[in-house]
Each structure stands twice: as structure tokens, then as C-alpha cells.
Design goal:
- This protein is α/β, with parallel strands linked by helices and about 450 residues long.
- The chain has a domain of about 300 residues: TIM Barrel (Alpha-Beta Barrel), CATH 3.20.20.
- The strands form 4 sheets. It has an 8-stranded parallel beta sheet with strand order 8-9-10-11-12-13-14-15. A 7-stranded mixed beta sheet has the order 3-2-7-16-19-20-21.
- Strand 13, helix 8 and strand 14 form a beta-alpha-beta unit.
- It is globular, with a radius of gyration of 21 Å.
- The structure holds N-(aminocarbonyl)-beta-alanine and zinc ion (ZN) (2 copies).
- One zinc ion (ZN) binds next to loops.
């Protein structure tokens, strides 16, 4: 298909936002010019009064993830469909081997599931123990198109590695040019504080926030930074939520640690006021780390503006309120940790652009371009240069207001933390690999056709 998108304000890159036309041929950006001739194309799309942006890249999602007692509600089909509605055209999903499963079997199993993806997709492999089969296979991951693993210093007894194993695994990953993504919190100390809370009768979900102090996030960020230095390994710190971790990140970098970092909308747009009630509704905000006080929120925005953190991912990890979150009615520790956000991530950021909290260029950099560079997808993704994949979104500059709600969003979950919020950045049209998936806010593609990005 040959398509020309005319009259839009086009973010060719975060630094180059220009009034140009874009020609798309065979799934690729073919040409950018001031005046493309519609006669050269089969289809002309009017993007007047619209932004045309590189499709969002969400580097942190948990689709169809078995988190012990329950599985996330969105699978790769429903989750990527919701992603597309929210302007995300590539997702990177965490996949975890079953006990004893080989990494090759895991990756093959997930590439099969990928057939159902509406967006492009790639994977990070969760390594939850120093298991000899997985260690033997680790060097083979790049040949399977996997370039990153995820390790945890939280969730003892489930996913947490000891410092010794963390060191061994990060060192081995680095030797094979694999990036270690790290969930950094001090899990054992958090468990003590949480246990004391429950023993004192403080069992409501609000205590999820109080029992995961940011000092234990900063401590782990710094510790992981030092272990990474010794392992001669780069590391990517996921979902940073606090000033403590921004400071720790800076100090570890000063000492020589090669650390990249992301934060998420729930740390930029929500704060610890969500934990002020004894009501069980607060379980909606049981994700890890928790949302933090205003000063932390400010420090994250500041870290983004200064380039200390440069990626905003969703950490979409949806568990229904009814049924799943309710597992923790009598003990907040049993509430599955995680919240939804794959569809609201980019619209929240673009709404903030309208409010003057950030520039359009910053929004594009933090939600797309920087992730494409970090995860080896640039310049195919994250930019609209000639030769790049035609993954793009068209957003009206003065869009109709959209009210976020579990009913209006497409994520397969019975709540959103942003219920009732007015969003201004919901894309009108979404093109993935040169094919329109969404037009006029409606799904128009008849089947999923996302591609593996390996
Ligand atoms: O609460 C969260 N973030 N759940 C997903 C798992 C993780 O820690 O990333
Ligand atoms: Zn995590
Ligand atoms: Zn996560």
C-alpha cells in the first residue's frame, strides 16, 4: 500500500517537529517533504490540525504473566489491542520460564503467542534463580532475538535473587551482551516491616504503601549499581518511584556504574494520597513500588527533564479488582501487585503536554525514541525518518475530550487508576507496519499482524 499523510505537524524526531507530508510505501517511511503529490499514492490521509508521532514503545509490560496466585488479565492479544488504542505500536513483554522449562522452549512458546499481537512485540526473559539449564542457555538468547533479562531484589521466595546470584547472573548476561533489567527494592527488609504491620492489625491495602519505604528502593538501586560495576555489566533500573532512587542512581553513576532508568505514569501522575483511606478500594493502587509523596513526584519529573531518567514505561500488570485483588481482603500482602496502564501511558503524557508540564519533544523522547535506542530498535522504531518502519500515530491537536474509565478503555481489567480523568491525547489513527489498525478511534484491522522485534 502507498499512503500519504498530509498537512500534519510531524515529529520526525523529538528535536525535529516539522510541517511536512509523509509518504509510506510497503510498510516503511518512504519520503518526507513539504508537498507530496497525492497522485503518487493509493491513499491520502488528512492530518491537518494533528500531530503525527512515532508510535509509542512500551518497554515494560506483563501480559499473560503468572505471578504465583493469579495470572494477569490481559494476554498478548487483548493487551496489544489496548496498547494500539493508546498509541503504542511496540511492546516489550516479560516472559518467565516455568520450573524446568528451557529458555528456547519458553521463547518458542511466546513467539507462537505473538501471532495474536496487534502491535510489534519483543521479550525480556525473567531469571528468578541460578538454574544451571538457564545459565547454559543464557548466551544463546541473542540468537533467539532476546537481548535483555529481568532480575529482582524484591519478592523473596518468589522472584528475588541473592546478591551473590545477582552478581553471577549479571556478569554472565553482560558477557553475552545481554542487558540486565533490575527491580531494585530491599525485599527481605520490606517483608519484616510488612509482617510487623500485619501483626499489629494493620492489614488494609493502605499499608502496602507504608511498608515499602523509598529508602529501601534507594538502597537497592545503589547496591545493584555497585554489583553491576563489579560484574562489568550495564543495568536498566525499572520503575523508579522516588527521590531516594534518583539520588542513588546519580551516585552509583558517578562511581562508574552504567545504569539506565525508567519511571512510570503511576509515579508521575499519582501520589501517596491514594493510600489515605482504610477502604479496600485502595487495593487498586497496590503496585510495586507504591506511589510516593509529592516531593518524590517532583523529583521524578525533574529527573526526566535533566535526562537522569529518560524512559516512561507502563509496568502494565493488570489484575482484576474483583476476584484477584480481593485475595488480599484480610492481609494486604496477598493482594497481587500490579496495575493497568498500557493504554493510558501515552495519552496521560500528551495530556500533560497540553497542560504545559512537558514539551511534545520530551513526550516523544520519553515514550518512544529513548526506548527504541535503549533496546536496539532505533532507527527502525522511535523516529519517522525515511527508511524507518511506518509505526505512527495521528493525534488531534484539539481532540475531543476522552474520559478514562474501565468502560471506555480497552484493557481487559475491571478498573483503571485514572477512572474519570479527562485525557486529551488519545490517538485518532494508528498505523503499524504501514497498515492502519485504528482509524477515527475505531479498530479497523480485521486481524492482528504485529511483528517480532528481535
Ligand atoms: O507491582 C508491580 N509492579 N507488578 C509487576 C511486577 C513488577 O514488580 O514489575
Ligand atoms: Zn518490578
Ligand atoms: Zn513490572
Amino acid at each position: 500500500m502507498r499512503c500519504v499523510i498530509k498537512g500534519g505537524l510531524v515529529a520526525v524526531s523529538p528535536e525535529h517537529i516539522l510541517e511536512v507530508d509523509i509518504g509510506v510505501v510497503n510498510g516503511v517511511i518512504y519520503r518526507i517533504s513539504r508537498n507530496e503529490d497525492p497522485q503518487d499514492y493509493d491513499q491520502t490521509i488528512d492530518a491537518g490540525h494533528c500531530w503525527v508521532l512515532p508510535g509509542g514503545i512500551d518497554a515494560h509490560v506483563h501480559l499473560d504473566w503468572d505471578f504465583g496466585d493469579t495470572v494477569t488479565t490481559d494476554d498478548i492479544n487483548t493487551g496489544t489491542r489496548a496498547a494500539a488504542f493508546g498509541g503504542t505500536t511496540t511492546i516489550l513483554n516479560f516472559i518467565q520460564p516455568k520450573p524446568g522449562e528451557s529458555l528456547r522452549t519458553l521463547v518458542d512458546r511466546w513467539k507462537d503467542k505473538g501471532e495474536m499481537a496487534w502491535t510489534n512485540y519483543g521479550f525480556h526473559v525473567i531469571i528468578s534463580q541460578l538454574y544451571s539449564l538457564w545459565m547454559d542457555e543464557l548466551p544463546l538468547l541473542p540468537s533467539m532475538g532476546i537481548h535483555s533479562i529481568k532480575v529482582f531484589t524484591a519478592y523473596p521466595g518468589k522472584l528475588m535473587l541473592s546478591d551473590a546470584d545477582l552478581f553471577r547472573i549479571m556478569r554472565a548476561a553482560s558477557k553475552s551482551s545481554i542487558l540486565s533489567m533490575v527491580h531494585a527494592e530491599n525485599g527481605p527488609v520490606i517483608d519484616v516491616i510488612a509482617e510487623e504491620s500485619v501483626l499489629a492489625g494493620k492489614i488494609q491495602p493502605r499499608y502496602h504503601g507504608a511498608t515499602r519505604p523509598s529508602i529501601l528502593e534507594g538502597e537497592a538501586v545503589f547496591r545493584v549499581g555497585q554489583i553491576a560495576r563489579l560484574a562489568n555489566a550495564p543495568a536498566y533500573m525499572v520503575h523508579l518511584s522516588s527521590l531516594e532512587s534518583v539520588k542513588a542512581l546519580g551516585y552509583a553513576r558517578q562511581l562508574g556504574a552504567r545504569l539506565a532508568a525508567e519511571t512510570c505514569p503511576q509515579y508521575l501522575f499519582l501520589n501517596d494520597e491514594v493510600y489515605q483511606s482504610d477502604h479496600f478500594d485502595v487495593a487498586q493502587y497496590v503496585y510495586t513500588p507504591p506511589s510516593r509523596p509529592h516531593d518524590d513526584v517532583r523529583s521524578l519529573w525533574d529527573a526526566l527533564r535533566r535526562g537522569v531518567i529518560d524512559i516512561v514505561s507502563s509496568d502494565h500488570c493488570p489484575f482484576d479488582f474483583h476476584g484477584a485483588k480481593e485475595l488480599g481482603k484480610m492481609d494486604f500482602r496477598l493482594i497481587p501487585n500490579g496495575g493497568p496502564g498500557i493504554e493510558t501511558r501515552l495519552p496521560l503524557m500528551l495530556t500533560a503536554v497540553h497542560k504545559g508540564q512537558l514539551t511534545l519533544g520530551e513526550a516523544i523522547a520519553w515514550t518512544s525514541t529513548n526506548a527504541s535506542k535503549q533496546f536496539g530498535l532505533f532507527p527502525k522504531k522511535g523516529t519517522l525518518l525515511p527508511g524507518s518502519d511506518a509505526d505512527l500515530v495521528i493525534v488531534e491537536q484539539e481532540p475531543p475530550l476522552f474520559t478514562a474509565s474501565a468502560r471506555t478503555l480497552h484493557q481487559r481489567i475491571d478498573y483503571t487508576p485514572y477512572e474519570g480523568w479527562s485525557l486529551q491525547g488519545v490517538p485518532r489513527d494508528v498505523m503499524i507496519g504501514g497498515q492502519w489498525v485504528i482509524q477515527d478511534h475505531q479498530l479497523i484491522a480485521s486481524n492482528s499482524h504485529g511483528k517480532f522485534v528481535g
